[in-house]
Amino acid sequence: MTTILVLHGPNLNALGRRDRHHYGTLTLDEINRRIEERAAALGVEVECFQSNHEGVLIDFLQARAGGIDGVVINAGALTHYGLSLKDALTDSAAPVVEVHLSNIHARESWRRHSVLSDTVRGQIAGLGWRGYTAALEALAGILGDEAAEQAK
How far apart are the C-alpha atoms of 108 and 79, rounded to whole Å? Predict the structure, then answer.
């Protein structure tokens, strides 16, 4: 079965109570449930994980790197400076889709740059929690297409 990691970075554990205008009203647990429901419908397995610490995210990713097919990540503020996280994502050799709840391109100038963007397959920003399920659908489709191509 296809396995996709869903990684949530710093402060995403505070969803539902932090700036609702930008991040919505759902908690991280509620978002994870929606991700898991969509994964089941797509026939893929997901493992969701959140940490406020870059090294913990890296350790988690490295421990699973050989057994995963893809990664969906909302790196939070690590998007803008998490170079060691970027290296770990690259080293995993898995395709990655970057997600942002808010539209980072319409916010403060420092939020507009992602150090991850040149290593990911794509970026989804500004769709709220739906960005996660959109990323999951896109990644499952990409993985399916690549498996079909390899089977030829």
Answer: 14
- Which distant-in-sequence residues (6+ apart) come within 8 Å of 149 by Cβ? none
* Cβ pair 46, 6 in contact under 8 A: yes
**Is-catalytic flag, 81?**
no
Residue ranges of the chain with pLDDT lower than 50?
Answer: none
pTM beyond 0.90: the answer is yes
132 catalytic per annotation: no
Determine which one of 8, 22, 53, 100 is catalytic.
100
Taken in order of first residue, the domains within the chain and their CATH numbers are: 3-151 (3.40.50.9100)
